[in-house]
Amino acid sequence: MSTRTAVVTGASSGIGAATARHLAREGYTVVCAARRADRIEALAAEIGGRAVVCDVTSPASVAALAEAVGPRLDVLVNNAGGAIGLGAVAEADPDQWRRMYDVNVLGLMQVTQALLPALVASGAGTIVNVGSTAGRIAYEGGAGYTAAKHGTKVVTETLRLELFDQPVRVCEVAPGMVRTEEFSLVRFDGDQERADAVYAGVAEPLVAEDVADAIAWVVTRPPHVNIDELVIKPRAQAAQHKVHRV
Ligand code: 8X3
Q: What amino acid positions are annotated as catalytic residues?
């Protein structure tokens, strides 16, 4: 068994699951953390990792994750997150905004707090926060999500400043359009037609593995190399609103 350990949150699907697989290929023992036990147990069995059921918005659940990880951790990928709804500010649902802030910002903060001592103890820890192009721009209907992802970005920057004298890198990988099984489906509350429309005509959107590959690259740089932020979009997406569709 590898002595290097990585925790990936939101590991039950999409970018999280792909990242867990990729880091396992890089030789890490991966702790797959997510709410859906069946999915992470299957993934952990596939990659020789461990499954820990965890809701990043629950302090008790996060404490149990830290307990399961133990005193030393090399890599934390704060991937759990997501968008809910696409409503204009004038009609936005505060509950949806609260849930997005909860998972994309508070969840990341709680998991980071809980695992930071173990990352420091490794002597060369790495935190990769999965941000978004939504953390850099604004778009109509997106304010609840863009505000949360701007939060992810700013928390990442702040943490890097606060840990400047600690042996922990703090990085952000910020994807644009990634076609995953669930991101848009969750955003549109299970409406497959609306979810599919997001990627309509885009010959090659990014897929989860593209982002996992970028995360693994960030993680596997030498420990003194901190990739502060890496923005990754499909070639067809020159900017948030400028997408080549055929
Ligand atoms: C996903 C990118 O375009 O849906 O984080 O905001 S977008």
A: 145
CB contact burial 47-68 (16+ within 10 A = b; e otherwise): bebbbbbbbbbeeebbebbbee
Report d(CA 236, CA 224) in Å as an integer: 33
Q: What is the CATH number of the domain that holds 222?
A: 3.40.50.720
- The pTM for the full model equals 0.97
Question: 133: Cβ below 6 Å to ligand 1?
Answer: yes
Residue 2 has pLDDT above 60, yes or no: no
Q: Which domain holds residue 156?
A: 5-243
How many domains in the chain?
A: 1
Distance CA 88, CA 14 (A): 27
Ligand 1 mean position to 183 CA, how many Å? 9
In terms of Cα–Cα distance, which of 191, 197, 202, 193 is closest to 237?
202
Q: Assign residue 179 a region: left if phi > 0, alpha if psi is -120 to 50, beta otherwise?
A: beta
How many angstroms does the Cα of residue 110 sit away from the middle of ligand 1? Answer: 23
